[in-house]
Amino acid sequence: VPAVLRLSGAPTGVAVALGLALGLLLLPVAVLLSRRYGSACYCLAVCPLGLAANWLGKIAPWRIRRTDACMHCLACIRVCRYGALTPERLKEGRPGPGCTLCRDCLSVCRHGGLAVTLYGKTCGVAESSFVVLLSIMHTVFLAVARV
User: Fold this and answer.
1) Reported pTM
2) Is the C-alpha dihedral spanning 36, 29, 75, 112 positive or negative?
């Protein structure tokens, strides 16, 4: 918000004040919605990185897929903050459309039952390229937030 206001010609003080006011207004709203719906509303609708991840997760070539090592322990379902993993979705081999590629499910799986794929190929390159892209996006968002 401050960057957009600055680009439109608003003074720095006004842009920062309005950006801060919007953030302070949206934070309690997002917390209330998160508690009501049981999902991370702030991450999906307010945070610029989470909002971009939510939209890009739907069109990105990276996907989370179940591997043959899956033991159906359901640990991944319990840790999914976005409700993208359900027992039915796990049987299908992929999370639902709410998946933001946060990879929390990968880190909790002790069996390696889930993997990041790129164009259907499971390999270290898919995970590495995704982490590099995510790091670059995060750096850009932080830089824009400081403008």
Assistant:
1) 0.60
2) positive
